[in-house]
Amino acid sequence: MNVQELTVSLQRDLEQLKKRFDEEEPPENMRDKSFFLTVKEQTTPIFEQLEDWESKALAIVKKRKVTIHPQQVTSTKENMDLLIMHSYYKDLRRRRYMEYYKSIKYIFEQLLAEMSSTSWTEEQ
To answer: Which has the closest alpha carbon to 10: 89, 69, 77, 65?
Structure first.
């Protein structure tokens, strides 16, 4: 997948995670092994995509194809890592969760907007 496809996919995941945070109840026992295994199974593909997205987005940023700073890419990846876990374990206040959510969403949208407004390919 290229950066645009990864970003769109991660945006969908971000929305699903927010929905989970809003609607699902956390487990009664946070040390429940079956819950942990479920979380691991559901989140591993997102973490893998996020790693791929970070490396590809950083490559584009370093070539100065977009105006996003490398630190913004790294911070977005770190924030998404946190948001993924807080969506399941809910040990974060809603206000702080939404700060992460909005920050991640802003960078994804900015990246997509800049990529669509210019004519370039990742191979350049």
So the answer is: 77
